[in-house]
Amino acid sequence: MAWRRQAFGALAAALLVMAGLGIVWRENRQVRENQIVSELADLHITALASATPVDVVSSDRHTVKPWFEGKIPFTFNLPELQGTSFELLGGRVSYLEQSPGAELIFKTRKHQISVFVFQDRAVPGGISANADARSFHVENWKQGELRYFAIGDVGTDDLRGLRDLLQNAK
User: Fold this and answer.
1) How many independent structural domains does the chain possess?
2) What is the pLDDT of residues 10-27, one digit of tens each?
């Protein structure tokens, strides 16, 4: 009878430890995601405040995409924007966690949207959900081995529209 109580006590203690570790892991992950989103918001604000927000100034995807060759360790596709409310303004190299990626600047109406493209492995722990940072909305998705983040002060419908265009780019 005593051994059953000891076994039950040991099982209960093990379950409490596992639950505690799960809570700590989830909290650490949430803190990390918030840090990444905050860093992306800072990069977007820097582009908004800069007199030269892009290093390659062009609305032509056939000019912008090749500009990144040799500057980042991957390639990506840009959509045809003709007939949409979006305009490509250009791009520049940005860094997240010391990993290079592309920052593409789009305009819709009078709002600018930054789209960041990084290798998925460069985003520690990934990002599980979309978020808001300051007064910006953030949409993120994984496509192949790349992780995309779209951030701007536009509505979520605009961010999703741009996401759909980028996901279907060939």
Assistant:
1) 1
2) 777 777 667 666 565 566
Segments forming the whole domain that contains residue 75: 2-167
**Cα–Cα distances in Å, from 75 out to 103, 116, 136, 159, 166?**
13, 13, 27, 22, 13
Beta strands in 84-168 (DSSP E): 86-96, 99-108, 111-119, 131-133, 136-143, 146-152
Which spans in the chain are helix H?
A: 2-49, 61-67, 156-167
- Mean of all residue pLDDT scores within the chain: 86
Look up the pTM and report it. 0.81
Indicate the SS3 state at residue 29: helix
Q: CA 145 to CA 60: how far, in whole Å?
A: 25
Residue 93: name the closest of 111, 116, 63, 112 by CA: 116
Q: Say whether 52 sits in a helix, a strand or coil.
A: coil
For residue 62, give the amino acid letter: H
**CATH code: domain of residue 113:** 3.30.200.100
Q: What tokens does 15 get?
A: 């379950």
